[in-house]
Structures are given as structure tokens and as C-alpha cells.
Amino acid sequence: MSPPSAGRRWKQQLAGGDPQVGMWVASGSPYVAEICAGAGLDWLLVDAEHAPNDLRSIQAQLQAVAPYPVVPVVRPPGGDPVLLKQLLDAGVEALLIPMVESGEEAAALVAATRYPPAGIRGVGSALARASRWNRTPDYLATADEGIALMVQVESVRGLAALPDILAVDGLDGVFLGPADLAASMGHLGRPDHPDVVSAVATAIDAITAAGVAAGVNAFAEDAAQRYLDRGVRFVLVGADVTLLARGSEALATRHREQQNP
Question: I need a surface site. Which of 67, 95, 151, 206 has the fewest CB within 10 A?
């Protein structure tokens, strides 16, 4: 029996067991993605909203991390169903869609990841890596159940619509973005502001109570632990580019201090 797909594994991991700890992969590099894939984390978020990723670079990163026991989740720049169709055909099986602010948007995203009659995804499996170019004989019949879909709530409007979003069938998780939420609340650059922290905590409680997996971005270790204690099922605790930036800065500082004691 072949191992479950990344989407199925992600659904299983969100449903039970330990919380899933991951990091951003924002460099656009398959080489860096592979390094991160072997680090022992549960998941990687390949970002195309704020990072220089496109369809080809995302596919290359999926290929680079495929041999590793880590789930690659992809965040596209938005929920355009044409782009989602391309990503799904390229083999993306776990999606995180940013800036969702209504139940209608969430329902449209579910439809974009399902074949008719359940949704609107176009059928092109003969051309697609996802079906191994139709070498997976039951792909069309089983594809829908193998796609994990999460939406990102990161604005005051999104929080207000959270009950409607949670009522949408077909969502596997709701991820909270404190940085954009802080900006939306008038606290730009302050995801640690007490009002933001309180809003995130309240949202985690609502998501969990609805039986949906809650996730959050939390680079600060104390914030990550606070949200894990609150019941989040998946969390991002760092990024490839920030690790490189801070690490290289620390390296340079150490050597400057040695040269100029």
C-alpha cells in the first residue's frame, strides 16, 4: 500500500496527536527548501504571497521536499480559481489562502479545489503532475478528498465574519495572522499588542469550539507556546530567510567584536 498523500497526511495530523510545528520557506529556492525539509519539522509553508515564488518554483520545491517526512503547504498570493487550478495540477495538496474575509469567499475557495459536481476545478489530469499524468488510475475519483484547504483570517473584517467562515463545509483549518491583524486594528508592527493577543486568543477559542483546526503565526517562542497552550493545532515558528538574515548578522557582529575588542 502506498503512503497517504501530503493532503491526507495533513488532515490526519491536524485531527489528532501532537500540534504541528512548521516554518516558512520564502527564499524561492528548492535547495533551501530541501535543507529545511530534513530539519525534523512537521510542515513547511511555501509562500507566494510575499515571497518571490511562482508556479515553476513552487513545483520545484515540491519535488525537492518530496522524499522527506514533512508536509508542504503552499500559500498562493490569493484565491484566484485559475491559479488554484494550476497549483493543484502541479501537485499542491495542502493550500493556505490569505486574507479571507467572508463565508462566501471561503465557500468559493472550497469549490475551486473540487471537481464538478462538487466544485468548479477544471479537468486536466492527463497533463498534470498531480495525477502522475494519468498514471494514478483513480485520481479523478479521489482527488477531492486528498486536498487540504485552510484559510487565513487576518483582519478585523475577517474576525467579524469568523462564524460565517467556520460554517463552511470543507475547510480543514483556519490560520490567524497576527501581523496583518495588528495593522487592521491600528497597531502596525505590534502583533504583541494586548488587544491583538486578546483577539487572537478569542478567535482560537471560537475556531476550536467549531471543531476546526486553529493555526497561528508566532515567531516569538513565548507567543508560540501561549497559543499552543490555548489549543492551536498548527503553528509557524520561523522562516528560512529570517534565520539566514539574523544568523549572518550575528556572525558578522561576532567577528567585528573580535577585531575591535
Answer: 67
CA-to-CA dists, residue 34 to 47, 78, 120, 129, 227, angstroms? 15, 25, 33, 19, 28
| CATH code, domain carrying 21 | 3.20.20.60
pTM, 2 dp: 0.94
One-letter amino acid at 33 equals: A
Quickly tell me which residue has 489530469 as its cell. Answer: 125
Q: Is the pLDDT of residue 4 over 90?
A: no
The answer to whether the CB of 13 falls within 8 A of the CB of 5 is: no
pLDDT score, position 153: 98
- Grid coordinates representing 20 are 504541528
Per-residue pLDDT for 26 more than 90?
A: yes
C-alpha cell at 79: 484565491
- Tell me which residue range forms the domain holding 77: 6-259
φ/ψ bin of 70: left (φ > 0), alpha (ψ from -120 to 50), beta (otherwise): beta
- CA distances to 39, 155, 197, 235 from 187, in Å: 34, 12, 11, 22
Which of 50, 187, 193, 255 is labelled catalytic? 50
Residue 82 pLDDT > 50: yes
Please report whether residue 241 resides in a domain.
yes
Q: Has residue 1 been placed in a domain?
A: no
Report the amino acid identity of residue 183: A
Q: Which grid cell sits at 141?
A: 475519483
Coil, strand, or helix at residue 183?
Answer: helix
pLDDT of residue 3: 56
- The rounded distance, in Å, linking the Cα atoms of 210 and 204 is 10
The terminus-to-terminus CA distance of the chain in angstroms comes to 62
Query: Is 50 an active-site residue?
Result: yes
